[in-house]
Amino acid sequence: MAKSNYITRSGWQALDQELKFLWKDERPKVTQAVSDAAALGDRSENAEYIYGKRRLREIDRRVRFLSKRLEVLQIVDYHPKQEGKVFFGAWIELENEEGEAKQYRIVGCDEFDPAKNWISIDSPVARALIGKQVDDEIRVETPMGKVLLYINKIWYEQAG
After folding, report:
1. Which of 11, 52, 150, 159 meets the CB 3.0–4.6 Å disulfide criterion with 95?
2. Cα 154 from Cα 86, distance rounded (Å)
3. Is residue 1 one of the residues assigned to a domain?
4. The pTM is what?
5. pLDDT by residue (tens digit) across 26-68?
6. HSE of 159 in the Cβ direction (CA atoms, 13 Å)?
């Protein structure tokens, strides 16, 4: 499945900051370190030189990726028309059949973070939630089988 190009404003800003940091801070430092290591002579056994070149390739790969990705990402901001329904950027409190409640946020695939309970818009749970309202129930196929979830609460963070 193709990944969506949606992202929250804060997610876009985080990627943009990472790109600027890599390009303006990290890359010049590593380039200087490689240059200094190369000046020491034999490069074949020079760990600083070898590591530095590898790190430069990693930085360049990430910079290329971020540059291309930021061009195609579409920032989705909160809109009052979203109130009461689940859309991109929503926080949702879901309750399972055992009565256990958990909160999730629907974000872009570039910013999902299981540790924060941020789920990708491309995930089966998020897809099932889109357009639903409080007190709706959804059935979702998960790796552990079909799950029935109830929507207890929906809210949005408004950009300030």
Report:
1. 150
2. 7
3. no
4. 0.82
5. 999 999 999 998 888 777 788 889 999 999 999 999 999 999 9
6. 12
Instruction: Measure Cα distances from 113 to 49, 89, 97, 136, 138 in Å.
Output: 34, 13, 24, 25, 22
For residue 96, give both structure tokens: 């399972």
The reported pLDDT for the residue numbered 160 is 43
92 Cβ neighbours under 8 A, 6+ residues apart? 86, 103, 104, 105, 106, 129, 151, 153, 154
CATH number at residue 67: 1.10.287.180
Do 144 and 89 fall within a single domain? yes
Q: Are 77 and 87 in contact (CB under 8 A)?
A: no
Q: Which of 59, 75, 91 represents a domain boundary (last residue)?
A: 75
Q: Which amino acid is at 158?
A: Q
Burial degree of 108 (CB within 10 A; 0-12, 13-18, 19+): buried
- Residue 158 reports pLDDT greater than 90: no
Structure tokens at 87: 């859309």
- Print the SS3 string covering 105-158: EEECCCCCEHHHCEEECCCHHHHHHCCCECCCEEEEEECCEEEEEEEEEEEECC
Q: Which residue has the tokens 């570039």?
A: 110
33 and 95 together in one domain? no
Pairing mode of beta strands 101-107, 118-120? parallel
